[in-house]
Design a protein that fits this description.
- By secondary structure, the chain is an alpha+beta fold.
- The protein folds into two domains: 145 residues, no CATH class; 34 residues.
- It is 49% helix and 19% strand.
- It has eight helices and five strands.
- It has a five-stranded mixed β-barrel with strand order 1-2-3-5-4.
- β2 and β3 form a beta hairpin.
- 16% of the residues are buried.
């Protein structure tokens, strides 16, 4: 265990599901999530993430095309009673985010959708607070540029999915226009 990366742990409730979050004790102080909590937060068993590359080979390959690494880092966390340390498998925030998007869009996992909406709402509040405090928002512009490189097909798929979700959730949404009606003919270019 001596060659494992040391980390400190906290627990975050994702609704009613506790998810362990870790801060690596390296020069980067990278933050990561525990794979068992991630699995349960998405509505699966604790072992789901570990079996994903084998049982979900098609899903795993699709995730990898979008930059998902699936890289797990084992970390060593000192026990509070100083009786040694426990070991936990973790994934990066970026991989967790890509997994959430896949689960929400491709698999229509309601738990993933709820998490994305919750994160988005809090993130938008923080963005506005940071802007009023004069903090740099360059990171936000970089993220927008990153996601603006999606292909037309990827963008159209997300729009169609979102429109159908709204129609399914709200009775008033039956009158929603399709892409051609909304945009005039076709959606605008995604280039900034």
């Amino acid at each position: 265990m001596s060659n494992l990366i040391r980390a400190i742990k906290t627990n975050i409730l994702f609704g009613e599901v506790p998810v362990d979050a870790y801060k690596l004790q390296t020069h980067t102080f990278e933050n990561r999530f525990g794979v068992t909590g991630v699995s349960e937060a998405l509505g699966y068993s604790k072992e789901w993430f570990g079996r994903l590359p084998k049982r979900g080979a098609r899903q795993f390959k699709s995730l990898q095309k979008d930059g998902f690494t699936g890289c797990q880092i084992e970390v060593s966390v000192p026990r509070e009673d100083n009786s040694g340390a426990s070991v936990a498998k973790t994934i990066s925030i970026r991989d967790f985010n890509k997994l959430l998007a896949y689960e929400a869009i491709k698999k229509r996992n309601i738990r993933a959708i709820i998490l994305l909406v919750s994160f988005s709402e809090r993130g938008l509040e923080q963005l506005i607070d940071d802007a009023f405090k004069g903090k740099s928002l360059d990171w936000f512009a970089e993220k927008v540029v990153h996601y603006s490189k999606w292909t037309y097909e990827e963008f159209a798929e997300v729009l169609a999915y979102n429109r159908e979700e709204v129609r399914r959730l709200y009775a008033w949404a039956d009158d929603l226009m399709d892409d051609e009606q909304f945009y005039g003919v076709v959606p605008p270019s995604l280039e900034l």
